[in-house]
Amino acid sequence: MKTTIQTWTPDAWRSLPAAQQPVYRDDAAVEAVLAELRELPPLVVPEEVDHLHALLAEAAEGRRFLLQGGDCAEAFADCRGSIIQNKLRVLLQMSVLITHGGRTGVIHLGRIAGQYAKPRSGDTERIDGKEVPVYRGDIINGLDPSQREPDPRRLLEAYHRAAATLNHLRALVDGGFADLHHPEHWDLSWSREDAGHYLETLDQVRNSLAFVQRLGGLPEHLRTGELFTSHEALHLPFETAMTRFVPESGRHYNLGAHFLWIGERTRQLEGAHLEYIRGLANPIGLKVGASMTPESLRKVLAKLDPGRRPGRLTLITRFGAGRAEAALPGLIEAARSEGHPVLWSCDPMHGNGRTAAGGLKTRAFGDILQELQEVAALHRACGSRMGAVHFELTGEPVTECTGGVEGLDEAGLQRAYRSGCDPRLNRSQSLEMAFLIAQMIR
Ligand SMILES: O=C[C@H](O)[C@H](O)COP(=O)(O)O
Ligand SMILES: C=C(OP(=O)(O)O)C(=O)O
Ligand SMILES: [Mn+2]
């Protein structure tokens, strides 16, 4: 069944094939939970969503830069003050570095307060000689092999953990946590020889932050307060329950987050996910991998951005190092010739996965950097702009990606590998990456 934007309803997707959905044993239990979710207060309000939309429009027009980042799979157990603070801090520090070096205002968009559902390559995996269902994110099942049965009670838990996370983020931002000039906030374990260049820049950043603080506060474009939330709109019954009609605008908003995106594995043109997201008033994102052709991108753009509105759609490319050149120029040309003012983002994580000798999933800092550099250069060559980046990262000192000034190698991955899904940049790798991005986009 085809619906037009006039006939779109939050449930219209139900008649279409939906990839990557959990199968629950007890449908009545799922229904009861969804009914409860529909009555709970929204996590964000339409005014904030519209404000983000306006900022993203400025980014699409080349006047701001979008920094999106957070866990691959947010864990319920990580809904803790220190972990949330560290994640916010690293995002804001990256933002300060990008603002300082790249001379551009930065929009902060966390993969946070709801990034709980994961698409997977397979349905099962082998653990200790036994085949078990894969982990699909805390909103569906548990990482422990004994908890792999999808449990509808997790949908409510996800709502409450997202609410608690967002509540803490809001308090941190309102309470002046964004005051980043204190030296202890910038303490890194890098040694001077390894990282003289970065440490010098850090000193400069610290000094200029302290200077403007003395003059009476940061100018608007440098203000580090605002943080928006985002997650992958994967679990469609949950997302539908968080979708609310807003009479003032006559539109439907997903008020579980400010920004939602559709992943590489669920972006089928006639599939349920695109049907669901196309009707939302939120700014939205779409992951775009090497299998996307200019022809299919045209059709996707017609569906997701019929109004050709700046800020509406962020295309998040994720090709892998060495693979953007074959794919990206044709996609840029397709969007341009159809008149869609998309914001181009680079996710240099998801095309660069590899398995380390010990079996852990990892990504190399050098590959991540290479893809960013290639994508930035290709945009420049095509008269376009990489106006955003998308990272899987954490503020914790994890050992999940190799490389960076600390020189983490594959043998060191075991030391503090915590991710339940994909490997994240740790704090020092994230800050180093931000330095390099600032140079790249200056
Ligand atoms: O986060 C992205 C995907 O869920 C992840 O890359 C899939 O990983 P898998 O190939 O191990 O299923
Ligand atoms: C699943 C993800 O990415 P992609 O859809 O690009 O594979 C993700 O961002 O975690
Ligand atoms: Mn991931």
TrEMBL record:
Q: Any idea which UniProt keywords this protein has?
A: Amino-acid biosynthesis, Aromatic amino acid biosynthesis, Transferase
Annotated signal peptide = none
Which pathway does the UniProt entry assign to this protein?
A: Metabolic intermediate biosynthesis; chorismate biosynthesis; chorismate from D-erythrose 4-phosphate and phosphoenolpyruvate: step 1/7
* Name of the top EC class for this enzyme: transferase
Question: EC?
Answer: 2.5.1.54
Catalytic activity as recorded in UniProt: D-erythrose 4-phosphate + phosphoenolpyruvate + H2O = 7-phospho-2-dehydro-3-deoxy-D-arabino-heptonate + phosphate
Record has Transferase as a keyword? yes
Q: Which family does it belong to?
A: Belongs to the class-II DAHP synthase family.
| Name this polypeptide is given | Phospho-2-dehydro-3-deoxyheptonate aldolase
UniProt organism field: Geothrix limicola
